[in-house]
Specification:
This protein is an alpha+beta fold and 335 residues long. It has a single domain, classed as Jelly Rolls, CATH 2.60.120. The chain is built from eleven helices and 15 strands. Strands 2-3-11-8-13-6-5-4 form an eight-stranded mixed sheet. A five-stranded mixed sheet has the order 1-10-9-12-7, with no helix packed on it. It has a two-stranded antiparallel ribbon with strand order 14-15. Helix 4 crosses helix 8. It is an enzyme of class 1 (oxidoreductase). It comes from Ziziphus jujuba var. spinosa. It catalyses: gibberellin A1 + 2-oxoglutarate + O2 = gibberellin A8 + succinate + CO2.
């Protein structure tokens, strides 16, 4: 039988069985992995933004503002992306990841965007038990990226357009809540730097202590996540890890580093992770980002951060991960 999962167990066998690299043996690290509770993220009905009642529109916008500043995460329903489109996208994603591994790794599907595991990992706490296609929006319409998967192309184009529309709506509301015009984030953000990421977390036979995706913050302005019902997403809240309860009807939205910087720390880019599990898990993330040469400054003075471009930020993140094994993030840019 042809295996469609990447050879994670074989590739990282030495790492997984070497005691010094196992974070579960380190009491401090183990403590940071304990999940204290399961949480229901703030749930926001976006029909409120379309209400004829001004008070209802304001109430909905304030709920988005409150969740972004207190949690950095929230869920949305009545978001405009039809259940039928989500179902079609999930079906195509399943077929894509069930392509034989050797084909995924060598045939340059989706702009050669396939990645798996963590090639730079030297400890298990740096290893992501997952595979993904991280596709620039600019490549989604190109027929040459899809090989024989013409049905995937059409669904991805429709899904990416719907996610982009939703991300810009929410970013506009968040900008307006800080006294700016709604279009200001749209002026900064550019589809040339936005991404759609298809994630697959294979069932992990090794340990429930392994990460499906290592703890991190997102670098862009805004992320919208469409996930299945398996669970595994966790976020840091009040200095402890909490597990996010899946909600089949909702999409998850979280603030990225650049929105935190632009808002002068009003909005919070919160550390989150995915835990590996005994059941495989699928998700799709849309990342709203600025063009690489766009200058990101704070929306008010005095500014907490120096001005920088998204290109500078991405370069610094790559350097830190290469040298230190982890992302440092916004603290590099504090004045």
């Amino acid at each position: 039988m042809v295996d469609y999962n990447p050879p994670l167990l074989r590739q990282y066998a030495t790492l997984l069985h070497h005691p010094s690299s196992n974070p579960a043996l380190n009491s401090n690290e183990c403590c940071t992995r304990v999940v204290m509770e399961e949480c229901q993220l703030p749930l926001i009905d976006l029909n409120g933004l379309k209400s004829h009642d001004e008070k209802e529109r304001v109430r909905c916008a304030m709920a988005i503002f409150k969740a972004s500043s207190e949690w950095g995460f929230f869920q949305v329903v009545n978001h405009g992306i039809s259940p039928e489109l989500v179902k079609k996208m999930r079906s195509e994603q399943l077929k894509l990841f069930q392509t034989p591994f050797e084909l995924k790794a060598t045939c340059r599907l989706l702009n050669d965007s396939y990645r798996w595991g963590t090639p730079t990992a030297t400890q298990t706490n740096q290893l992501s038990w997952s595979e993904a296609f991280h596709i620039p929006l600019t490549k989604i319409s190109e027929e040459s990226c899809y090989g024989q998967s013409s049905s995937l192309r059409e669904v991805m184009r429709e899904f990416a357009a719907a996610m982009s529309k939703l991300a810009r709506l929410l970013a506009g509301v968040l900008a307006e809540n800080l006294g700016n015009r709604r279009e200001v984030i749209q002026d900064i953000c550019d589809e040339s730097a936005c991404f759609l990421r298809l994630n697959h977390y294979p069932a992990c036979p090794v340990s429930s202590e392994l990460f499906g995706l290592v703890p991190h913050t997102d670098s862009g302005f805004l992320t919208i996540l469409c996930q299945d019902q398996v669970g595994g997403l966790q976020l840091m809240k009040d200095y402890k890890w909490v597990a996010v309860k899946p909600n089949q009807e909702a999409l998850i939205v979280n603030i990225g580093d650049l929105f935190q910087a632009w808002s002068n720390d009003v909005y919070k880019s919160v550390e989150h992770r995915v835990m590996a599990g005994k059941m495989e898990r699928y998700s799709i993330a849309y990342f709203l980002c600025p063009s690489y040469d766009s200058l990101v400054g704070s929306c008010k003075e005095p500014s907490i951060y120096r001005q920088f471009t998204f290109g500078e930020y991405r370069k610094q993140v790559r350097e830190d991960v290469s040298k230190m094994g982890h992302k440092v993030g916004l603290s590099r840019f504090v004045l």
